[in-house]
Amino acid sequence: MNGDPNDTSVPDSGAAYVFVRRGTKWTQQAYLKASNVEEADLFGWSVAVSGDTVAVPAMGELAAHIYVGAGSLPPQLSIERAGGGLRVFWPLPATGFVLDEVPALNASPVTGWSTVPVASYQTNATHVSLSIPQPSGQKFYRLRRP
Fold it and tell me: How many domains does the chain have?
């Protein structure tokens, strides 16, 4: 988040911009770029926004990146297919979060979030991750401090 918008060294990797409107004036609030940039990811091909949650798919890697919070830099939540399920991960040192899910982002603010039961979290040198079963139907995810 808030990387260098002038860095175009990886073709078709993509980016998304967040603007806030106050009165009649629009101001850029954030520049979003995937933490795992690769050629032809097409990150930002489309976006979904609800309240302070932004979901940005990376069509070329079949993943979505979720940004939550309008304050200081929130952790970037990344989701990708892994085997028969999903791998959900976010960068260290953002620890102490729980994963919530909701079937639709159709209201502002979104209501109906429920905590995803997780047996254990894994960490490596750069990320916290967990594996969850492939959901039946559409799901949206966020990180939340309990």
Answer: 1
